[in-house]
Amino acid sequence: MEVTIQNLRKSYKDKEVLKGVSFMIEEGTICGLLGVNGAGKSTIMKIMFGLESADSGEVIFNRRHRKVGESNRFDIGALIESPAIYLNLSAFDNLKTRALLYGISDERIQEVLRLVGLDNTGKKKAGHFSLGMKQRLGLGMAIITNPYLLILDEPTNGLDPDGIKELLNLIRELKKSGMTILLSSHQLSEVSKVADKIVILNQGEIFYDDVNKDSNDLENLFFRIVHGGE
C-alpha cells in the first residue's frame, strides 16, 4: 500500500503539534519515522489509523483520497502506544477476539503466535506476561488480518536485545511479503538496520525526508537536526 501524508495540521488547545506535515511511503517499503518525545510522531500514526482527526490535510492510500480520520481497520494494522490486550485472556484468545471480527481461522492465529514467539504460552493469561511479551502480543494483534499497511510506534519497548533482534527479523519478513511498514523508535541503530527511508520530525515539522543512504551515520544526522549539532 502506497501512503501519502499531505499537509497534515493538528493542534491541541493552543499547541500546534503538526505544522503542515507531508511525506510519502512507497508500497512494500519500511519508513523510519524519528523524532524526540512530543515531536508529533504518535499523532501522525493515530491520524493514519483513524484514532485521531487532523484539523486539515489528507492521508491518501494507494492514490485514493479518504477523509482524514477514516480508515479500513482490515487493511491497516497498528501497534500504537500500549497494546490493547485483554489481561484476563490467553494470547490465543486475545487474537481470537480480533479474528472473529473478520472470519479468520484458528490456523492463522497459530501462525501469528509462532511469528511473534508466543506459541508456547498455552492458557497463561496476558496479565502475567512480561512487558516484552505484551508488546509481541500487541504486534500479533496488529498483523492478524495480514494488513497491507503496518504502523508500529515504539515496538521494541520492553524487549531485551534478543527480542529486538527477533522483532527486526520479523519486520524484514513482513516487508518481503509485500507489507508497507511505518516504524517509529528511539532505537536509532535498530531503525537504521531495516528502514528503506528515514523521515525526521522536529517540533511538528519535517526536517529530513530521504532514503536511508548511510545507516551508520543516522545517529549523527538525527542529533544534528534535533539538537543543532550538539
Write a structural description:
By secondary structure, the protein is an alpha/beta fold. It has a domain of 122 residues: P-loop containing nucleotide triphosphate hydrolases (Rossmann fold), CATH 3.40.50. The mean pLDDT is 88. The strands form two sheets. A six-stranded mixed beta sheet has the order 6-7-8-3-9-10, with helices on both faces. Helices cover 33% and strands 27% of the residues. Helix 2 packs across helix 3. 39% of the residues are buried.
Which helices and strands occur, and which strands form pairs?
Elements lengths: L2 E10 L2 E11 L4 E5 L6 H9 L6 E6 L2 E3 L9 E4 L11 H12 L3 H10 L15 H13 L5 E5 L7 H16 L3 E5 L3 H7 L2 E6 L2 E7 L6 H10 L3
Parallel strand pairs: 3-8, 3-9, 6-7, 7-8
Antiparallel strand pairs: 1-2, 1-4, 4-5, 9-10
Helix pairs in contact: 2-3
